[in-house]
Amino acid sequence: MNDHDHLRKSKTLHLFDFRAFEVELKRLESPDCYFKSIAVDLQKKRDFIANILHEVGLEPVIPEGGYFIMADWSAFSKKNSVEQRLPF
C-alpha cells in the first residue's frame, strides 16, 4: 500500500480495508492478530540479517521500531578506501 492507493481504489475496496482493520482491532490481544504477527515476523527477519552482518564483521544498528537496518562499516573504511580504487 502506498500514499496513492486511495486514488485508484473504488469505494467498495475502501470499505473492505476499513472492515479488515476493524476485525484486526478486535483481535488485537490475540497472537493471531496481523499487527502482532507482522511484528514477530519482521523481528525474525531483522535478527537474521543482523546476525549475518555481525558474522562478516559489520556492526548492525538494530532498529527499535522500524524495519530498516544499517551497519557500521567504519572498521572496513581504512582497509577498503573508495578513494584508493578510483581511476582518476
How would you sum up this structure in a few lines?
This protein has 88 residues and is mainly α. The chain is 57% helix and 7% strand.
Features:
mainly alpha; 5 helices; elongated; 88 residues; 2 domains
Task: Report on this structure.
This protein is mainly alpha-helical and 88 residues long. It folds into 2 domains: 1-30, no CATH class; 39-88, no CATH class. It is 57% helix and 7% strand. The chain has 5 helices and 2 strands; from the N terminus they run H-H-H-E-E-H-H. It has helices at 5-8, 11-26, 34-55, 74-77, 82-85; strands at 59-61, 70-72. 0% of the residues are buried.
Strand order of the largest sheet: 1-2
Count of alpha and pi helical runs: 5
Please estimate the helix content.
Answer: 55-70%
Largest sheet: 2 strands, antiparallel
The N- and C-terminal alpha carbons lie at a distance of 44 Å
Please provide the ordered H/E string of secondary-structure elements. HHHEEHH
Mind telling me the C-alpha Rg? 21 Å
Shape: elongated
Mean pLDDT equals: 75
Q: Based on DSSP secondary structure assignment, what is the total number of beta strands?
A: 2
Low-confidence stretches: none
| Beta-strand content estimate | 5-15%
Structural class from helices and strands? mainly alpha
Number of domains: 2
What layout of secondary structure does this protein have?
Elements: H1 5-8, H2 11-26, H3 34-55, E1 59-61, E2 70-72, H4 74-77, H5 82-85
Antiparallel strand pairs: 1-2
